[in-house]
Amino acid sequence: MGTRRRRRVEPTEDWKQLELLCAxxxxxxxxxxxxxxxxxxxxxxxxxxTGTSERTLYRRVDRFEDEGMESLFDPATAKRRRRLPPAxxxxxxxxxxxxxxxxxxxxxxxAYVFFGRRPDYRTVRRILDEEPIxxxxxxSYPPYHEIEEAKERRAAIVELHAAGWSVKAIxxxxxxxxxxxxxxxxxxxxxxxxxxxxxPYGRPPGVRKVDLRAIEAIRCLQENPSLGAFRVHAALELMxxxxxxxxxxxxxxxxxxxxxxxxxxxxxxxxxxxxxAASRRHEYWSADVRYMDEIAEERFGGxxxxxxxxxxxxxxxxxxxxxxxxxxxxxxxxFHLAVERYGSPETLVTDGGSIFRANRAKxxxxxxxxxxxxxxxxxxxxxYIETTFNxxxxxxxFHFARAQSWAELLAVHDEWVTNYNEQSxxxxxxxxxxxxxxxxxxxxxxxxxxxxxxxxxxxxxxxxSRKLDPLGYARFRHWRIYGEEALAGNEAALWLEPETxxxxxxxxxxxxxxxxxxxxxxxxxxxxxxxxFETSFVLVQPRLFDLARAxxxxxxxxxxxxxxxxxxxxxxxxxxxxxxxxxxxxx
Length: 587
Fold this sequence. Notes:
By secondary structure, the protein is an alpha+beta fold. The protein is 42% helix and 13% strand.
């Protein structure tokens, strides 16, 4: 029986000849990459010889190095994928059976910890689709609170984390909160095995502070719907209740569900650079006027304003007053109170309001060596006082709207100033010296102080001090002007403007009069229309017969012109003077 002899062909490197000699596609693919794999030929040269793109040659060489000869066969007839080890496939199925909430990436991460090889999440999904998942699995650990020993409970969390479990998966598997997992892992990192033991003091001390008194205090504060967690936390500190801001937020959220309270609107936004940021105390003061739009005008007989002066570095309110007008006298009264208490600043920052640009105000700035700066038009956020007014809206507007009398309104305002200065401020929350309130940051430091006579000299053309007589009148330039009978015997301030004269006591205006001057002089020619403001001062013992009420509003005089002072008489007798003159002539 003869043997079939193969036709002898001369060896060649010509790709066109080699391609004709290859009978199988797999043989052709191998010859295409053989010089590259065996001899390290240039891919660019081989691509030019075979007419194949360089990217295709690179990809086929990589597959050959990874999969060997199997990479040459058609995918339909050969399994080109690397099969995962059976142990890894079993681990993937067991993990899904033990905790069904696992996602694909979490399972892949755990497989990497065990085998040093991370399967793709698509591979994990294919295995879970192909392999049957057991209906009932034995748990590696019982739920956290079912483990008797506290040390064993914490050790379970550490062991699961070391096995590649995520914090979320550990919390869900052991039925605990993620914060518990984070806390135990932090103790393990910082203290090692010692962090798994029980501590002598047991639970954190902050947990025991949430009692019925604290919850009721938060509920009462939360009746003001504008207060957020930070302001409630700051108010509780003044009451001696120390709760963290997140704890206050959680209790407030519970109260909203129980009592239907509204959730305050969030503030914040992009932080803008402040051109008048102070680096030291009393470098900048900010002053402004706020219209109290939430107060019913008919209740108090007209509009109501707040005039405040703020120290920029500490954010402390130096002086503030509730007024019925926003004129120059009202501003200078507040400014005088601030300077009297804290001295003068280096610079006063305001907007372009006319009361801040008045000639008398400019003269006062010059007398006190105070520089005057203004924020840019249309940019109120450049003044720190605007932020303070926003805090006032949150803390006090709810109570302002409920005030039924002028005395109640002033009491709410004074309480707000005190609470604002004494409560923690957001701007000071990260201070290392432990000073978190405006009052603590301001401390004892003051600006340039003046003696009383020097301060009176600076305000000499605007402010005058007068003592009220038993009927509540003050004498000023041959006029008797009514202030307040309840303040008889007290010293009041009279603020004189080109057209008005106001009587004020302790930052509260008592009355206001329209005035005219004699031409070319400062002497008062006439005092016309008068306004008596509602005040918080009342007579200790009301009179049996109220003459003002009996005569009516127009029936009694509030301003009375007095006679001129009589010329002084000579103290020496006229006859004696004549005798002396006669004696002198005789000599």
